[in-house]
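Could you please consider the sequence and fold appended to this message?
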Amino acid sequence: MSLHLMIGLIGLLYIVVFGGMALFRRESLSIRFAVESVCLTSIAVILVWLTPIQIHPVWFLLLLYVITLRVRILVDLANVFARRGNYIQAEKIYHLASHLWPDQTSDLIIKVNHAILLLQKNQLNESISMFTEVLSQANQGYLGVKYEAAAHFNLGVAYLRNNNNSMATVEFNSVLDTWPASLYARRAEETLKRQRTKATTHDDNKPAE
């Protein structure tokens, strides 16, 4: 098979595979992802076909991956810094990612992870506001089930830390409705059990009238 046909086939398979993965995650297919992938593949095919430039298929695939998934790569990098407690650097990377033309799904992913960072910094009101903004757009189909469950769970944690137990309960129950088989659901269920236990203990300690 000629090189330009191989690169074209790789580009096509890349779109199909990653597009299928998006549907598996219950995310809407990103038009921007498809357009960027098609444009990059077309440019590579033309260069290889009409010029002396030779592009190795592996390097082409790597380039395609880095460019089209740049936002998610940066979010993962920011999360590494956040887990190490380097919140300033993490926020800088989230900010950078938000300015690299993210599609709707990637933009929501940035906000979910940034809101988690704010929660880690105990900036509860800012975190609650950002989670609420993200979840208000969940029904548009751009937020995958993993991130929707994460947003509900962490919003519940934020409410709990803010002494808003009723809203925390609502969010933890939303996790169970969104993705019952997830780790978030198990943790939400454990938290709800602890809340019920505390409530029962509190009632038992009330003086009889």
User: Anything to note?
Assistant: The first helix runs from residue 3 to 24. The two ends are 87 Å apart (CA to CA). The chain has two domains: 3-68, 70-204.
